Amino acid sequence: MLRNAALTTAFGAALAVTLLAPAADAAPSPDCFDRHKSPYTSVVDSHLHFQPFGGPAVPFPEMLGYLDKTGVRYANMYGIGQTLPAASTCTYYLNCPGTPVTPSLRNDFVNAANYAAFKPKTPRLTLSMTFPDLANPEGIVDRIKLLDQEYPGMFTWMGEVNLIKQALLPNKHDPADMKDIGRWAPFMKILRERSIPLTLHSDLGSDAEPTKYLPLMREVLRRYPNNKIVWAHMGLSKELKTMPAEQHIETVEQLVEAHPNLTLDISWRVLYDQYFKDPANRKLYVEFFNRHPTRVIPGTDFVASRDKNFEVYKEELEITSDVNKDLDDEAFRDIALGQNYFRLLSIKDEAPEIC
């Protein structure tokens, strides 16, 4: 029914019927997506944490149910690489300043074990390595080899990993610096050879210094131009809410135009709350996405801690997808319907054309 048999399988027959219902006043092609009749929410969640910082997670089958009920057919299976101590009673690092949050393989093993045990066909999940300590990169290659040994061929993404995350600084987060970035070469070579995308959380700056950390991202892009780099949240954060949208877009657009392997991740409701919700800002961002439709992927940044439920996930998906409503057809197909995500992963699935 869809343009590609693999996509038909992944989306599921029920979703295909829903998405491809013909308009009342027209007879669209049976293999196209009717934006007037179909949901605006993204069918891809490229930024989804199946494991929390601490405490119990939403059970894996339940999380799969959330995706199924909301029409998400593809998702990145992130852990949380920087975990709270096992003995800690905290579930969220911001509630526990002073408690160290340290890189760990723990969540990657849990995710892989769940994936191997349940072997879900839909949604199609992409296992991601979230363990790397980018400030101390010497052990990353050995840990990749360990995951290869235990779960051969299963991890095809890396991230979200922290280059600089200001919110974690009270929890003894050790940001990477320029010298550290130069020492990434061995593991970046592996990612490049395997065509594995790397999602970096790299804050652009704060209200006091909006572009304080921009040189770090520039250095990554300069040193590793042939790696697929995904910039989580377009560099925005709770610490950066007063930077003019025009300045932010100009800064990011310069990087997008200079570095063809850079993709922007527009996950996290903070982007909506602080930027996209304002009509004037929203217009500027929509125009930017329409200018660069192939350079953006969507996501919720939902963290599946047990104190959350389906209604929370549904709301996060709706809010982070809200900007999709105003995208032109090309950008909607590439972003919301997943074409950019498929391209990043070098998979053959293909999004339907817009009716």
Automatic annotation (TrEMBL):
Tree of life domain: Bacteria
Keywords from the named record: Hydrolase, Signal
SUPFAM superfamilies, alphabetized: Metallo-dependent hydrolases
A matching Pfam family: Amidohydro_2
Signal peptide: 1-26
InterPro entries: Amidohydro-rel, Metal_Hydrolase
A molecular function (GO) term: hydrolase activity
Boundaries of every Amidohydrolase-related domain copy: 173-335
Keyword Signal: yes
Name this protein carries in UniProt: Amidohydrolase family protein
Protein's organism: Actinomadura litoris
